Amino acid sequence: MLSNSLIELDRAHLIHPVASYHGHEASGVRVLTSAKGATVTDATGHQLVDGFAGLWCVNAGYGQDSIVAAATRQMRELPYATGYFSLGSEPAIRLAAELADRAPGDLNHVYFTLGGSDAVDSTVRFIRYYWHALGKPERDQFISLQSGYHGSSTVGAGLTALPAFHAGFGVPFTWQHTIPSHYVYRNPAGPDDRAIIATSIAALETKIAEIGGLERCAAFYAEPIQGSGGVLVPPTGWMKAIRDFCKARGILFVADEVITGFGRTGPLFACTEEDIVPDFMTVAKGLTSGYVPMGAVLMSDHVYNTIADGAGASAVGHGYTYSAHPVSAAVGLEVLRLYENGLLENGVKAGARLMAGLRSLKDHPLVGDVRGRGMLAALELVVDKERKTPLPAAADPSRRIFDRAWSNGLVIRAFPTGVLGYAPPLCCTDADIDAILDRTQMTLDQTLADPDVREAMRSRAR
Ligand code: PLP
Fold it and tell me: In terms of C-beta density within 10 A (0-12 exposed, 13-18 middle, 19 or more buried), how is residue 15 classed?
């Protein structure tokens, strides 16, 4: 009764992110009611292993009482403090210091946001300000990677290079450009790491020339692993090579660690895996493990000093009411403590089990590619392994496979391209990981039995 009326209320009033509005009205909402560890329960009592940690964010897992206690304590003591007028709160100051302490190199300055999109959006404002401060306002062209995701703000959606975020929205802007993704599985340069890196560097050189040379180029954006583009893992050394290329040419380099940060790939920040010190790093999601909203921009010394000197006695006009929110910061501090008191370590162990299990599915007739690092992984399904032919669109992978996994007690991300994405909480037990793998196998076998999938496989073979 309750859940039926909720479904109707949702249909009538709640707009869902990145959804077909009519499609959602037809399918109706699935209401989640509780969660513990890596398990979520829906309004019908169905229990599922959350193989996607909400939206790759609940890294600490559900039901962590100490996080709830930290938020409660902070709400009682001081539920809000602005950062305007040189005011502040202890948890925000401490969290900024703890992040700076752990972040690579001289990323010593932290601007807190409400999530990842406004963190990316803030970098665009800071970068423009930086180049103005240096007397080079013409360095106003931004480059990102195809299949990249950098959020859904008006400006960030143009750095995002996924068609659904552009169509009908008038982005990208003319100053936003892309180069092809490294997408190893389908890279025209073949699977060789060095060839892929060389191809990306060449593409960047060409793009810079196209937009008027280095004197026009403001910044380059990349995720250490492209998440929403289908969990695309670059070759080892790719990120470092691009970072070095940018550094040598004075192009600001933004590492978007909104998904990869906070243990998702193993360490606290994926950039440390290749010893990269970007000029900016954006984080969110695992920063508060999804318990409350928060994101951050980490800014290097030289960028901070240039902006500060450029502004002099004037205010740098960028701010949000909820920047450095004390409750979010208190949660961030407790989440960080949990990561460093066993969760990161458990994530590495669970990630190895997940990756080994997914790799063992490589022989399944539908699995074309297995990729990932730590607790961030994907299977790419195909109907012809040699030709890498995707599942037929008629098989509607994002809906059918998601629904099927759901019925099997598993939450995954099912991309329309037939990629299955995994980002489980770092607290997963061996049994949780095994359940993810068993239920994936079941879902794959059921999909293999679909008449339209079988037909597509047969017609490829002919
Ligand atoms: N950047 C990356 C790499 C992301 O994956 C996301 C979200 O998934 C964002 C930015 C945007 O973050 P949010 O959804 O918190 O605004």
Answer: exposed
